Amino acid sequence: MRLYLSSKKSSDFSIRLTIGGPYQRELELNYVTKDEKIIVIPTGEWIEELKIFPYARVNSVNLRASLVGIDDYVGLFVDKYGQEHFHRYFSGCAEVVLFEPVQGEPKYDSDILGAVFDSITDKYFEELNSNWVQKYMREQTVRVLERYARDGSTILDLGCGPDSEVLRIHKKIYATEVDVSEAALKKSREIHEKDGKDIRWILQRNNSEFLGNYDIVFSSYGYLNIETLPSVAHLLDTNLKVGGLFIGSFMNRYGLFDLLLSLFQGRGKYIRERISGRLTVNDSRYNTISFPRAPSYFDKLKGMKHRDRRGVCTILPPYNYKRLIVLAERSGFMGLLDELIGSFPLIWAISDYVIFVYEKTGPVKFE
């Protein structure tokens, strides 16, 4: 976001802030200072993110944000940018965001994540039903789940969202649906409460709430996007039966064709972030920070044996050449292509997304 004075485009008149926590959104804003405080006028949707996680940073300095009345700071903005600029861009603003230095890097927990996903549940649900990429990804994941789930399977679904793939399979299963978002669980109940499946919905605040001995632990993107391997290892060790399956999907860090097309489009920052495994909100296609994984990421877990692994969107990157790919998907060609070559070792490793199946053979550890 740029709100420069047209004739004054120097760093003296703008500051680069990064909202922290689950967003990592970068902003470039007009600002004034008073003592050690940085003051900006909220002029974008990012203010809603600051209300959920009120922290940001400038370079290595951590800041806490608060909303205060604008009256005490109007003179500072007018002196710096001029009366005309102030009224053009900030007319009608009643508040400013006050950033004050704090010690240490602020952390966020499941309550913060819950608030984040509560705020985007409706938008995400709309995308599930309207965005062809989301629909295609889910269809491919449901096919894998159908292949490995059995009637009577007990399934732990982590980060289930408002409409999980687990609840779309045509098997009589016993599902434990877990999410940090109360809004997502409420939406899931509305959709699936009358499906005839045995379902528990659990609002996650600590892992003891869903302790069990499951046939399948499933997670598609969401939970695996935020958890570390040691945490995943502990969860599988305590909740998955020996012989049980760990099934899920994640964004591949090395989605070759998307990277090549992004290079052609001049999206250098996106390429660097994706390969590094950390996509900020600015460059991600999602509403929170994303962590693309290496293709064999879960091979580091001891006590888990690889059963199946396949690439999705192997040759055709889903967000590029949209008209061509929508046609390929609607005609069934894209699904056939992924089915034919998605399991080839050199192909799945460069696909945009990876769907995996591991079997538990013993105690699970990360070493």
CATH H-level homologous superfamily name of the largest domain: Vaccinia Virus protein VP39
Spatial order of strands in the largest sheet: 2-1-5-6-7-4-3
Q: What's the architecture of the largest domain in CATH terms?
A: 3-Layer(aba) Sandwich
Q: Estimate nothing, just give the exact number of structural domains.
A: 2
**Percent helix among the residues?**
25-40%
Q: What low-confidence regions span 5 or more consecutive residues with pLDDT below 50?
A: 1-9
Major β-sheet annotation:
7 strands, antiparallel
Q: Which secondary-structure class do the elements indicate?
A: alpha/beta
**CATH fold assignment of the largest domain:** Rossmann fold
Quickly name the level 1 CATH class of the largest domain.
Alpha Beta
Proportion of β residues? 25-35%
Gap from first CA to last CA: 43 Å
Mean pLDDT: 87
| Global shape | globular
Short description:
35% of the residues lie in helices and 27% in strands. By secondary structure, the protein is an alpha/beta fold.
